[in-house]
DNA sequence: TATTAGACTTAGAATCGCCTAA
DNA sequence: TTAGGCGATTCTAAGTCTAATA
């Protein structure tokens, strides 16, 4: 069915291209290749995988993204067993078409499509009553409260058997300290000397009702007996850090807003919130009714019912906005003054203390040591909570995670103290507080360049590589089930097909207090249209309220099944009404250990990159090779639907380039005329600026013409690239989906300095991948 | 079995800061 | 000197997924 590929949302532009991939003359073992990578690359044993050569498939266009990429050149490489062994992708390099729309207007209405979630409030209320009564609103979350245990002796009874088995099997299950941690504060801390920080129980999902007891003395530190959550595996043995920093307190500016044209006095607290609103004047939020309503509800609480301000629409925030612009201007200029540079340096030095943690004796960078400042919630899309006031976080909201013997950091705000300290070695976070908007947790963790994150990253890509060995079987399995009698089975089969073929996200259920977005399992009838004879047209709002629009040709059995699932339902009904992500992932685990829906995205992204780089890389300079990489990166970004908004200046930039092309073309015309004149022995014409042009030989004019044409080509290429990438975000796939070892190996094979592809941050993040052999295959 | 807390990854927007051209 | 462009970095929202719990 070779023709199908042309209709399933992928183009077959490459079909008539010459077989592309040729190995560089330098293999990875060459001296050149080694010297190239002398600093970053170190040769380590090849990460070999079982050899597997798959013969051409007859039905490639029905095969999901990755496998549709061709392996034309594998045979060329077959002398290199390691390199050719695992490519299994067929057909032309396919391209997802026609889905680069940021506008959401055409998307099927997803509102009122949400399922009602069954409330557990009745049970959680009683739980709350039994639990800790610290009186802190921030402790509450979804029917659960943080507890601080009073009696720690009878711990294991509270722990489920499965968890206890795990605990006894690993050293990481060592119980948290039985003794209170009082007095573990830094000796320099005056605030914390007087008020001992509590050692509280963690936000553990293993905590049972029995453990939830009221702490009588807030200042009395207690150890936690609750077992940690996370995956239960030990993440560290010793952990030290200096806590987190807080934004400076609000400094009132005294600029008055106008109410019905008259200046109004505001208290510092009221002014602070008014300023948070005023500075957003040039954003889309400012005019959104939902944003304004939520802001007004929260601001009004601060103003009080009897305040002179009774209506938001009668407020004029211009004076504060102007003040804000002025401040911005002043601040941008201040940097040029020596004193301000000094101030900046000093503040950096102050931050330095919080930038690092010591994990098992190794100094690691902390990712986000600054606590989020107060603000107005900026939920994406049509988030029902947008505009709500995000209150200021204080040290008493923040719980730290530290090694048992680590000193408790001094609280950075004099007179205040941490909410608590725990010693929770099966999680990676260093601190957390409760998100005042969504009652979830906000974590402070190590940076992306840390060993911990690196290992986790590597594990992720190894799992995706493993999928390659199972994917044929998985595809055979879901294909068989397209016609299963059992509806659930059929729904699982079709859902996995879509996840595999289109790299859709799993699609968890969402609540009414979240933006109305969908993924595969939550697709509504209105999101999928059947276009005869066998195409599906998708139009829905996905993660981050980014629209996904795509029309693809699918297997007739899939088309028929989707039509059945839609039959007799309204637009707001679920397509997969017998399916959720739990069932889907449970099924995937039967096919491959630890397999979940998201692994398909990583797999498809990485295999697409690997295959495209092998096919498309030609001899040429580094710049040309970098363009090939960018093209492959773009392909992956399109598959994953990674979009960005068009920059405000895009139009002007393109216009400028168009003007440049026009000028260059006029110049070319002049050059051609002068060439003709030179051939006839005539002097060249005057330049456009009226200046006399030097008389040169026809050969010299020809050379100039060649150079001019190259200039034109370059600017035209730049303009095209700019246009092509105006809505495509390349970074997300580079950071999260494409196995960095593919990139590193390709750089080694083709003598492209890795710095041309990875910036400083990525080099640090992917340090674990730098040793890969040049013949690494995903 | 369904629900959801908790921990983590993934995501686009906003901001920063360096460079270049006018 | 300034403005603008643009890649890098920071910020924090919004997903996924596991396992406890009702």
TrEMBL record:
Biased composition annotated in UniProt, kind: Low complexity: 118-128, 186-205
Q: Where is this region: Disordered?
A: 1-217
Per UniProt, the ranges with Basic and acidic residues bias are 1-10, 17-34, 71-83, 130-140
Q: Record keywords: Coiled coil included? A: yes
Q: Where is the DNA topoisomerase I eukaryotic-type domain?
A: 376-751
**Which stretches are annotated as coiled coil?**
654-681
- Tell me the active site: 737 (o-(3'-phospho-dna)-tyrosine intermediate)
- Chain intervals with Polar residues compositional bias: 35-46
Catalytic activity field: ATP-independent breakage of single-stranded DNA, followed by passage and rejoining
> What EC numbers are recorded for this enzyme?
5.6.2.1
PROSITE patterns linked to this entry: TOPO_IB_1 (PS00176), TOPO_IB_2 (PS52038)
Q: Which UniProt keywords apply?
A: Coiled coil, DNA-binding, Isomerase, Topoisomerase
The entry assigns this protein to a family as follows: Belongs to the type IB topoisomerase family.
Its function, per the record, reads: Releases the supercoiling and torsional tension of DNA introduced during the DNA replication and transcription by transiently cleaving and rejoining one strand of the DNA duplex. Introduces a single-strand break via transesterification at the specific target site 5'-[CT]CCTTp site in duplex DNA. The scissile phosphodiester is attacked by the catalytic tyrosine of the enzyme, resulting in the formation of a DNA-(3'-phosphotyrosyl)-enzyme intermediate and the expulsion of a 5'-OH DNA strand. The free DNA strand then undergoes passage around the unbroken strand thus removing DNA supercoils.
Q: What protein is this chain from?
A: DNA topoisomerase I
Originating organism: Camelina sativa
């Amino acid at each position: 069915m070779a023709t199908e590929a042309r209709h399933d949302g992928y183009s077959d532009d490459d079909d008539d291209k010459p077989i592309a991939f040729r190995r560089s003359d330098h293999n990875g073992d060459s001296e050149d290749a080694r010297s190239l990578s002398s600093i970053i690359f170190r040769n380590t044993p090849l990460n070999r995988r079982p050899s597997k050569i798959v013969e051409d498939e007859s039905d490639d266009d029905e095969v999901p993204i990755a496998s549709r990429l061709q392996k034309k050149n594998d045979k060329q490489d077959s002398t290199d067993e390691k390199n050719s062994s695992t490519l299994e992708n067929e057909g032309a390099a396919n391209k997802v078409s026609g889905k680069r729309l940021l506008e959401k207007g055409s998307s099927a209405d997803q509102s009122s499509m949400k399922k009602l979630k069954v409330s557990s409030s009745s049970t959680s209320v009683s739980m709350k009553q039994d639990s800790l009564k610290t009186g802190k609103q921030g402790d509450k979350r979804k029917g659960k409260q943080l507890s601080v245990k009073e009696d720690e002796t009878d711990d294991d009874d509270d722990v489920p058997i499965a968890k206890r088995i795990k605990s006894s099997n690993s050293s990481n299950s060592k119980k948290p300290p039985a003794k209170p941690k009082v007095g573990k504060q830094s000796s320099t801390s005056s605030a914390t000397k007087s008020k001992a920080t509590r050692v509280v129980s963690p936000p553990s999902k293993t905590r049972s009702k029995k453990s939830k007891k009221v702490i009588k003395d807030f200042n009395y530190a207690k150890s936690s007996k609750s077992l940690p959550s996370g995956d239960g595996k030990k993440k560290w043995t010793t952990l030290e850090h200096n806590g987190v920093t807080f934004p400076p307190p609000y400094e009132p500016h005294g600029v008055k807003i106008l109410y019905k044209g008259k200046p109004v006095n505001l208290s510092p607290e009221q002014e602070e919130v008014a300023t948070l609103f005023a500075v957003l004047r040039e954003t889309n939020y400012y005019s959104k009714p939902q944003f304004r309503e939520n802001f007004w509800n929260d601001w009004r609480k601060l103003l009080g019912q009897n305040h002179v301000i009774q209506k938001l629409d009668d407020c004029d925030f211009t004076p504060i906005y102007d003040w804000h612009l002025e401040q911005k201007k002043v601040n941008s200029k201040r940097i040029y003054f020596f004193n301000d540079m000094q101030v900046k340096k000093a503040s950096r030095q102050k931050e330095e203390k919080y930038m690092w943690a010591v994990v098992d004796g190794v100094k690691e960078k902390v990712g986000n040591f600054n606590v989020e400042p107060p603000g107005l919630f900026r939920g994406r899309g049509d988030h029902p909570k947008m505009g709500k006031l995000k209150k200021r976080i204080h040290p008493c909201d923040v719980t730290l995670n530290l090694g048992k013997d680590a000193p408790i950091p001094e609280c950075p705000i004099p007179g205040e103290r941490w909410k608590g300290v725990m010693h929770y070695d099966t999680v990676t976070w260093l601190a957390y507080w409760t998100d005042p908007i969504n009652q979830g947790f906000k974590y402070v963790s190590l940076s992306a360049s840390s060993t911990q994150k690196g290992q986790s990253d590597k594990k992720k890509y190894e799992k995706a590589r493993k999928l390659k060995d199972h994917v044929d079987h998985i595809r055979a399995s879901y294909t068989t089930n397209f016609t299963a009698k059992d509806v659930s089975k059929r729904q699982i089969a079709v859902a996995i097909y879509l996840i595999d073929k289109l790299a859709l996200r799993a699609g968890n259920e969402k609540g009414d207090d979240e933006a109305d977005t969908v993924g595969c399992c939550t697709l509504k009838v209105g999101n999928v249209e059947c276009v005869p004879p066998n195409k599906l047209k998708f139009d829905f709002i996905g993660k981050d309220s980014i629209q996904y629009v795509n029309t693809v040709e699918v297997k007739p059995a899939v088309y028929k099944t989707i039509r059945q699932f839609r039959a007799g339902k309204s637009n707001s009904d679920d397509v997969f009404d017998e399916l959720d992500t739990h069932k889907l992932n449970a099924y995937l685990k039967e096919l491959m250990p630890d397999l979940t829906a998201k692994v398909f995205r990583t797999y498809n992204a990485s295999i697409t990159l690997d295959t495209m780089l092998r096919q498309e890389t030609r001899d040429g300079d580094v710049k040309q090779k970098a363009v090939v990489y960018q093209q492959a990166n773009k392909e992956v970004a399109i598959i994953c639907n990674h979009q960005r908004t068009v920059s405000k200046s895009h139009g002007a930039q393109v216009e400028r380039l168009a003007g440049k092309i026009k000028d260059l073309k006029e110049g070319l015309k002049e050059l051609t005329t002068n060439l003709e004149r030179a051939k006839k022995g005539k002097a060249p014409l005057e330049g456009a600026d009226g200046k006399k042009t030097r008389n040169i030989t026809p050969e010299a004019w020809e050379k100039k013409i060649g150079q001019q044409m190259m200039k034109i080509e370059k600017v035209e290429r730049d303009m095209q690239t700019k246009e092509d990438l105006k809505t495509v975000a390349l970074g997300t796939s580079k950071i999260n989906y494409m196995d960095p070892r593919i990139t590193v190996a390709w750089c080694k094979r083709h003598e492209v300095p890795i710095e041309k592809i990875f910036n400083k941050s990525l080099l640090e993040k992917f340090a674990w991948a730098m040793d890969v052999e040049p013949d690494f295959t995903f």
